[in-house]
Amino acid sequence: MDEITPVRPEDGRENVRKSVIWAGSCDHDSKRHEVIIRNISLGGMLIEMDCSTKRGDTLMVWHQRYGFFPGAVAWSKGMTHGISFVEAQGQVRGHFKDGLRRLGLEVEGATEEGAGKGVDQG
User: Fold this and answer.
1) CB of 117 within 8 A of CB of 94?
2) Can you point out the beta strands (E) in 1-122?
3) Contact, 56 vs 97, CB < 8 A?
4) Which residues contact 98 (CB under 8 A, 6 or more apart)?
5) Which CATH number fits domain 4-103: 1.10.1760.20, 3.60.40.10, 2.40.10.220, 3.60.110.10?
6) How many CA atoms lie within 13 Å of 80's alpha carbon, on the beta-carbon side?
7) What span, in angstroms and rounded, lies between the C-alpha atoms of 42 and 18?
8) Contact, 36 vs 69, CB < 8 A?
9) Sequential pLDDT tens for the chain (122 residues)
10) Are 118 and 43 in contact, with CB atoms under 8 Å apart?
11) d(C-alpha 88, C-alpha 30), whole Å
């Protein structure tokens, strides 16, 4: 699962995306839900979760190694949810510590601009 999707400004993507299969959890509507994180970038992540969401819902996704990621639902289709990070990219980078290069997220062409960009529109 080492697929890296490059920056594609023509598709509205401003960040490199890494395909992953990570277990995590998500706090949404005062409940904790188990999630599978399917891909991640400095702008957001794609998760699978057995919970209904709607565009704009706020939530907090947790991963054992990288901690908490506050986000907002960009889109939702069934159990698949596109999450845009609500923190600035500098803060998001801090979650990954030294893992950015190892994950392939710190590559030439990735932008430094705000968060919340580059989540596929399902």
Assistant:
1) no
2) 4-5, 17-28, 31-41, 44-49, 58-63, 67-77, 80-85
3) no
4) none
5) 2.40.10.220
6) 8
7) 10
8) no
9) 556 555 555 555 678 889 999 999 999 989 999 999 999 999 999 999 999 999 999 999 999 999 999 999 999 999 999 999 999 988 999 988 778 888 888 755 444 444 444 454 44
10) yes
11) 24
> In the chain, which residue ranges form alpha helices assigned H by DSSP?
89-96, 99-103
d(CA 99, CA 43): 16
pLDDT at position 110, please? 44
Cα(43)–Cα(111) distance, integer angstroms: 10
- What are the extents of the domains in the chain? 4-103
